[in-house]
Amino acid sequence: MAATQRKELTEFQRGEIIGAWKCDFSIRKISEILKHSKSTVHEVIAAYKEGFETLPSRSGRPPIITERDGRHLMQTLNKNRKTTIDELCENFTTSTSIEASPITIKRYLHKNNIYGRVGAKKPFVNAANKMKRLKWAKQKVKWINEWENIIWSDESKFEVFGGDGKRYVWRTPQEKYNPKCLIPTFKSGQESVMIWGCFVKNKLGPLVKLEGKITANVYVKEILEKHLLPFINNLEDKENYIFQEDNAPIHTANIAKKWKEDNNIASLPWPAQSPDLNPIENLWDELERKVRNHRPLPKNQDDLWKILQEEWLNLDEKIYKNLVDSIPRRVAAVIENKGDPTKY
Fold first, then answer.
1. Cα 322–Cα 326–Cα 328 angle in degrees, nearest 5
2. 96 vs 73, 92, 99, 107, 264, CA distance in Å?
3. One domain, residues 48 and 149
4. Which residues form the Transposase Tc1-like domain (predicted)?
5. Are 97 and 157 in a shared domain?
6. Fewer CB within 10 Å, N side or C side of the chain?
7. CATH number at residue 48
8. End-to-end CA distance of the chain, in Å?
């Protein structure tokens, strides 16, 4: 009868072997009775004779990716966190001449808590704007109640159809907002509706559909004049409110600046590439979720615009109040990240 392949023995199994040997059973006989390989029986007896109670640990199969190879693999991955597992495997094999399969590469990454995860979408922030964001945040770090008097505004595009837009990156759970692991935002070119909206902590403003080319003149005449000004005039203590908008050319054009000056509307200086500081971006996300859950789904731009208006008016007041209350935490996060994008 063939003996079974050796595996790590328990203390009881080793005792059986030594006990049989002390009873003058041969190694071959012990192997047949206890169904261990002769080499295993021999090693246990030899270890006992030398005073060892256990066998030395078995080395097992050497790993394909050594510690040094692993460092090289991580260096390769850090150059591009958005690479596919096949591309990573090919680059690793080419640079090291080690034949490692995608499964082996993936197993090594998982061992180091690195998995393929959906990349967070954030606009790219260059070095100069990182410093501007950091400076702005430090200037506003002591603001608390002041945020309640800000009129938050922005434009946004909502698409009629489209996939989930998910792209994956290799990262640990703690690296979600690491700049190397972010997915830059981009325009898809799909059928869509462009809107402008605004709100304050305790009140939603108008939602405006934008059509055609939006110039600075159109922005002033069709948005600021027709929609922003009436909204401000209906606010209590309207003179205490400050208008927020990003640095889009139509917002910073001379005609727009003059109109705001003529109408005594104060503007909040705004750091470039900072949607994570503007809570209306999160309000757009909430609006999009409601549109996606609406039944029936919009089939065209007209349907989409009707649903957007309906869902905008149905937004829970707690949502935009909580968003404004989050601004101090956003400011602190920018400082902590030294100007890099934050989780917001």
1. 145
2. 9, 6, 9, 18, 66
3. no
4. 71-141
5. no
6. N
7. 1.10.10
8. 68
Residues 234 and 195 occupy one common structural domain:
yes
User: One digit per residue, pLDDT tens: the chain, 344 residues?
Assistant: 444 444 677 888 888 888 888 888 898 899 898 888 888 888 888 888 776 655 555 555 667 788 888 888 888 888 888 788 888 888 888 888 788 888 888 888 888 888 776 655 566 788 999 999 999 999 999 999 999 999 999 999 998 854 444 566 767 777 766 777 766 554 445 688 999 999 999 999 999 999 999 999 999 999 999 999 999 999 999 999 999 999 999 999 999 999 999 999 999 999 999 999 999 999 999 999 899 888 888 889 999 999 999 999 999 999 999 999 999 999 999 999 999 988 88
pTM exceeds 0.85, yes or no: no
Residues 103, 239 within the same domain: no
SS3 string of the chain? CCCCCCCCCCHHHHHHHHHHHHCCCCHHHHHHHHCCCHHHHHHHHHHHHCCCCCCCCCCCCCCCCCHHHHHHHHHHHHHCCCCCHHHHHHHHHHHHCCCCCHHHHHHHHHHCCCEEEECCECCCCCHHHHHHHHHHHHHHCCCCHHHHHEEEEEEEEEECCCCCCCCEEEECHHHCCCHHHCECCCCCCCCEEEEEEEEECCEEEEEEEECCCCCHHHHHHHHHHHHHHHHHHCCCCHHHCEECCCCCHHHHCHHHHHHHHHCCCEECCCCCCCHHHCCHHHHHHHHHHHHHHCCCCCCCHHHHHHHHHHHHHCCCHHHHHHHHHCHHHHHHHHHHCCCCCCCC
- 225 is written with which tokens? 């004049």
Give the domain extent around 147. 127-166+188-336
Q: How far apart are CA 121 and CA 257, in angstroms?
A: 31
Both 293 and 158 in one domain: the answer is: yes
Domains identified in the chain, total number: 3
